[in-house]
Structure formats: C-alpha cells, structure tokens
Queue: 2 jobs
Job 1
Amino acid sequence: MADEEYDTNFNQLLGSFGAHANIQKRQKAERLAAMEPDDGRRKRAGRSRQFNARITDESFALAHLLIKRLSARDGRKWSQADFLEAAIPALAKAEKLGGGA
C-alpha cells in the first residue's frame, strides 16, 4: 500500500511538472532574469514598429561612433533603436517639421 501511494505521489509530481509548465514562458522569464536592468536586449514599451534600412559604410560607422559617445555620456548602453528614437525627433526639430521634443 505504501508503494502505491508513493507511486501515485510521484506520478502526480511528474504530471504536474510537465502538464502545467509553459516552456516558452519559463524560458522567457529565465532569460529576463539573467539580464541586467539596463541590458539592451530587454524590450522597451512603445516600440511596436520595425524600421529597416540599408545605409553606407560611412553612415554605419558614424552611427556607431555616435552610439558609443552617447553610451559613454549617459553611462548606459545605447542601442540602434535608442539612437534612432533620439535622432529622428532631433532632425525633425532641426527641419522645423514639428514632433521633435
């Protein structure tokens, strides 16, 4: 009788472990837990559109130089998305288009 009870408890444990586990959700939680708070891989609220473009090597080098300088200035790692979100309103303001902060 004790063996049957042990087997039942063991099967319940295994069943609940596999049946109720959302593997993708758990993997995401583990990945986020391993990241630093200012890690660039964390999603930031408000970014719902993807913007892709081809640029010249010179523009790419200039963008990376600016990202390095901004990262050093602010003491945090700037991503390409952070850079674009700052650059687009600044250019719009310089061109007097509005929308620039």
Note: The mean pLDDT is 79.
Job 2
Amino acid sequence: MDSDQLPSARVVRANGAPVAPPSPPVGDHLRRAWTPIAAHGRDALTVVIGLWPLTAIMAVMFALLWAAGTTH
C-alpha cells in the first residue's frame, strides 16, 4: 500500500510551527449529531402514517365490542 493511499491527519502550520487545525463550526457538530435522530424520526412517522388505517379499524372494532357488551 502506498503512503498516498493512507489517510492522514491534517497538518496546519502557523509561521512554520505545526498547530492544531481549527475546529469546525458548531452547526456542523449539531448537524452530524441530529442526522441519526432525524432519520429515526422520519422512520417512526412513516410507520405511524402507514399504519393509521389499521389503528382506526382496531379502534372501531373495540368500540363496537364495548357497545355490544353494554346493551341489554
């Protein structure tokens, strides 16, 4: 494996002396942290929207069973 294929740390020099690279803006940190949470939120919303007919049918079924049980 050649040395140009290996990943390496970014080297920043100030007046010839190596220094730590500047940190990314705060928005980038938050965007990376929220990306997985947003993906799970979208998946949960998709499931809720996709299953609402089943939920409605189950609610009507239980309401009818309750109504049938309370009549004389």
Note: The chain has a mean pLDDT of 77.
